[in-house]
């Protein structure tokens, strides 16, 4: 079976969680020794980052005359030219790891598309009017014209059915593959950098957006400090950009918490992993996630997690964290922190996120479609 994989959208080190998802999935395909042929459809500015797969003769690379960073041009190119690329390379199945498949299927190819969430329908204020309308339109066309939709959680599947009245039989839930390199750096490196001690700080990883609810965590730290509560009062937040960045910085300055709440910005995986491993608790305050990889990554590395139970989070963490019922209740967060020592770590079934296991599930979908 020849499988085309559309990678034109990947902006290396700028595509966030969806980039980690597709690279982990490709690694899973790479590990499975079958007779399938994978054609990686790449752009001028990202093709070099996929070269390692060419060590396996089953993987081929097609470099298209477009740049991933030129989003509007790339979308136009995909709609006008991708079908021709599929036809020229005799590709019968095209896998779209994100929503942006061609609106019209000129060559009658079979498209399988992963939808990660319908965030724009829940938070339209994050988007320009034009982009919001475009996303609504694209999701509708994608759901209708793909032969199969992969949803990354049962929450996303239910959301697609609710918002677009999609046929449930057309949607299959496959979790994201999660890969953690356990060869982490020395704690001394991050200890000096952020002025922290082992088991004496909280950690979170989140883009700086309103639905991540980071303001509540700042309020938690404020109360711990002001009331002299005998718990750590230091929080590290790893995340870049987002509509909440200015508000968070203002809160931190207003409450005089510059030494207590540290926005690390982008950090390397080895530093992130050692911060996971040595925190008092990983606090995940988000109220909307299609999947939510950070709390699972934290649990894989042995961190104890306190989270909300909203949208997909309880599902993908298998009910193995501590959960707040009201994500905005500062006192409830503090009460959960008091009882964090009662939580047993490493009780997740990690196999369900294994990249090879996930890749096998995708291959089964491809076989079924063929």
TrEMBL record:
- Supply the alphabetized keyword list: Transferase
One Gene Ontology molecular-function label: glycosyltransferase activity
The record places domain Glycosyl transferase family at: 188-354
Domain Glycosyltransferase subfamily 4-like N-terminal, residue spans: 16-181
Extract the Pfam families matched here: Glyco_transf_4, Glycos_transf_1
Asked if tRNA processing is a keyword of the record, the answer is no
What this protein is called in its record is Group 1 glycosyl transferase
Upper lineage:
Bacteria, Bacillati, Bacillota, Clostridia, Eubacteriales
């Amino acid at each position: 079976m020849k499988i085309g994989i559309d990678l034109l959208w990947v902006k290396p080190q700028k595509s966030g969680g969806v980039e980690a998802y597709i690279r982990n999935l490709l690694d899973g395909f790479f590990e499975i020794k079958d007779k399938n042929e994978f054609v990686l459809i790449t752009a001028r500015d990202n093709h070099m980052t996929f070269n390692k797969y060419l060590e396996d003769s089953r993987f081929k690379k097609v470099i298209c005359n477009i740049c991933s960073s030129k989003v509007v041009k790339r979308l136009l190119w995909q709609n006008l030219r991708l079908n021709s690329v599929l036809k020229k390379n005799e590709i019968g199945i095209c896998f779209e790891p994100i929503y942006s498949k061609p609106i019209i299927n000129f060559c009658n190819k079979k498209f399988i598309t992963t939808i990660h969430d319908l965030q724009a329908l829940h938070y339209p204020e994050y988007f320009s009017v034009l982009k919001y309308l475009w996303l609504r339109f694209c999701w509708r066309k994608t759901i209708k014209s793909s032969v199969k939709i992969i949803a990354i959680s049962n929450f996303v599947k239910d959301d697609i059915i609710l918002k677009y009245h999609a046929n449930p039989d057309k949607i299959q839930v496959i979790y994201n593959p999660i890969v953690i390199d356990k060869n982490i750096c020395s704690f001394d490196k991050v200890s000096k950098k952020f002025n922290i001690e082992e088991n004496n700080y909280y950690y979170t990883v989140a883009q700086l957006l309103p639905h991540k609810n980071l303001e509540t965590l700042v309020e938690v730290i404020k109360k711990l400090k002001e009331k002299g509560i005998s718990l750590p009062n230091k929080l590290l937040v790893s995340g870049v950009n987002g509509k909440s960045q200015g508000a968070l910085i203002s809160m931190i300055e207003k409450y005089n918490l510059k030494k207590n709440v540290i926005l690390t910005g982008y950090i390397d995986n080895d530093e992130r992993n050692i911060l996971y491993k040595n925190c008092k608790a990983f606090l995940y305050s988000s109220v909307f996630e299609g999947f939510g990889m950070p709390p699972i990554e934290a649990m894989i590395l042995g961190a104890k997690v306190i989270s909300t139970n909203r949208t997909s989070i309880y599902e993908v963490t298998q009910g193995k964290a501590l959960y707040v019922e009201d994500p905005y209740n500062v006192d409830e967060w503090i009460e959960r922190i008091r009882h964090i020592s009662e939580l047993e770590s490493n009780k997740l079934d990690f196999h369900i996120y294994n990249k090879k296991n996930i890749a096998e599930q995708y291959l089964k979908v491809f076989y079924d479609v063929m």
